[in-house]
Amino acid sequence: PILQLIFFGYATTLDVKNIHTVVLDNERTQQSRELIEKFEKSGYFTMDFYVTDYGDLTRLMDNGDALMGLVIPTDFSNNLGANKTIQLQTIFDGSDGNKAAIAAGYVQGIISSYSQKIMLESLERKGLKTSLMGNIQPEVRVWYNPELTTRYYMLPGILVILVTAIGFL
What are phi and psi of 24, to 5 degrees? Predict the structure, then answer.
C-alpha cells in the first residue's frame, strides 16, 4: 500500500501545464503576434504548430497532437483599432474534459487581461486619464497547498481507496 500510495500520488495529477496548441493566425500582424505571445508567456501554453488553413488545424486536433486550437480572424487588428468586438475561436479537444475545462479557464484569463490592456491603451490614446479605481483586484491566497499541487490533496483520498480495496480483497 505504501508503494502504491507513492506511485498513485505522482501518477494521478490534475495539474495542466504545457497545453499543446495549434495556431491559425489569419492576420499575421503585430497585434495578433502580441496576443500569441501572451499565451506563450503565461507558462501554460506551448505553441507547437502554426498552420495556414483550417484543414491542417482540424487534422492536428483530430490526431491528438494538440489540446487546443487558436484561430485569429483576418479582421483582428482592424476591429481592434475600431473598438469592435472581436470573435476569437478557441477549439478544445474534449476527450479529456477536465484538461479542456482547465485550459478554457486559462484562455479566459489571458483574453480578459489582454482585453483590459487594449482598452486602457485606447483610452490613453484618446487623452483620457485612466486609473484603475473601481477595478477589483483579487488577492488570492491558497492555504495548506500554495502551489495547488494535485498530489497533496489527492493522497488522503487515494489512501482511503487503497486501504478499502486491500481490505476488501
Answer: -115, 95
